[in-house]
Each structure stands twice: as C-alpha cells, then as structure tokens.
Amino acid sequence: MRKGRVDEASALARRIGNEITRLTKTQMSLVHEGVDSREMWACVRRLTGKSQNFDRVEGITAESLNDHYSRISTDSNYIPPALKQTVSIPDNDSVTEWQVLKVLVTLRSTASGLDGLPTWFLRVGAPIFCSPVTHLFNLSLSTSTVPRQWKQAWIRPVPKVTAPAQHSDFRPISITPVLTRILERMVVNDFICPAIENPITSLVFHDQFAFRPTGSTTAAIITLLHSHTPAPDQSIRYSHRYRF
C-alpha cells in the first residue's frame, strides 16, 4: 500500500477477509441450533480473542457479592406507597391467545429463571400453554399486580473491567423468568412505545431519547447541536469539535 500498489493490497485484503470468514463459519457451524445462548457466546468470545476466566477472584465470593448488592439496593427509609386505582379496568382482554401463541412458538434459546421453565418446554407446549398463560397475563395487567415468583431473578455478576478486584467492578445482570420477559416485551410494544410515538396533547416527548425506539445518546447530541445556536465567535470552534 505504501508503494502505491493499491490494487494488489486490496486483493490481498479481500483474500484475508474471505479466509477469516471461512474459518469463522467453520467454528460457528459446530454450534448447532439447539445449544443455549451461554455456549454460543462462549464460542464468539473464543473467536474474537476475548475469552476470559473470572471464576475465581481473590476475596470475592458469592456471599460477599450478595451482601454488596443487597446493601446498595436497599433503602432503610423506604415507605411503601398506599395502593390505589389509577385506571379503569378494560372490558376486553389486553393480551390475546394468538399473541401469546405467536411469541411462545418463536422463543429463542435463552437462560431460564428461578422458576426453572426452559424456553424449549414453553415452545414445544405452546398450543397447550397459550390459554392459561394468556389468562395469567391479563389477570396481572388488570389487577396491576406482578406475581412474586416473576419478580425473583438470578443475579449474574459480569466484570466491567479486564481485571476485577472489588465488588463494584462487577455489573449485576438479573435473569428473570422467561414468562416475565415475555410480558415485559408485550407491555413495551403494546403500551409504552405507542404512548411515546403518539402522545396526548398534554404530553410532549420531543426531548425524550431514553427508553424509546431509535432513541440514543447520538440522537440527543445531534438535537443539542441543531437546536443550540452558538455565538459568532464560537461557530468555528463548534464546527471543528463535532464531526459526524
């Protein structure tokens, strides 16, 4: 490339890329469709060279992590609010059996929660389970109540740094039951997203970027740059600082 042989360099880069793609496909083909997501991501980490072993960290145990997460997520001054009815109960069901059936038969392999219900079991028995699961979902929505079992989760600590040395170096990932995740996804798609995309007149979400489709920090920065008019002596400095 430095000698100006651009065509030869490009051809060589394509050959190297094709060889990497071929070897990657060979390795990934060993991961069949029925394998769980944990084994699949382990294969991805091996291929990308990011495979790391954090099974043992000096001075950090499961009990100490439990105490750490309990301490930072517990407020001794918290007072539960009084229960109140803020909306009217709909006459018809919010979730249909067809919606639940369609979700169950297309479930992907993922980690199970504390209830022990695996995705393959729900997928295979979807025609039978869709009716009682729909009833549970509608009952939960109509009474504004989440079953206690659905709120319990496995906590998996994931390192935030290359060499974790203290409890705060781990990010807690909550693995909730599969049914919990299904209901959460339905609430987001059927209620939260439509409310944000088509809000009522009294609500304005033009400056809302988090927890909405296509929202991101990049969109927030672009909006700030386009809505802010810099002073004449700052226009050149802004134009050089932000480049997209």
Topology:
Layout: H1 6-29, H2 37-48, H3 62-72, H4 97-105, H5 119-124, H6 126-143, H7 148-151, E1 154-159, E2 170-175, H8 178-197, H9 217-227, H10 235-241
Antiparallel strand pairs: 1-2
Helix pairs in contact: 4-6
Give your account of this protein's structure:
With 244 residues, the protein is mainly α. Among the domains are: 93-198, no CATH class; 201-244, no CATH class. Helix content is 50%, strand content 5%. The chain contains 10 helices and 2 strands; from the N terminus they run αααααααββααα. It has helices at residues 6-29, 37-48, 62-72, 97-105, 119-124, 126-143, 148-151, 178-197, 217-227, 235-241; strands spanning 154-159, 170-175. It has a two-stranded antiparallel sheet. Helix 4 (97-105) packs across helix 6 (126-143). The two termini are 27 Å apart.
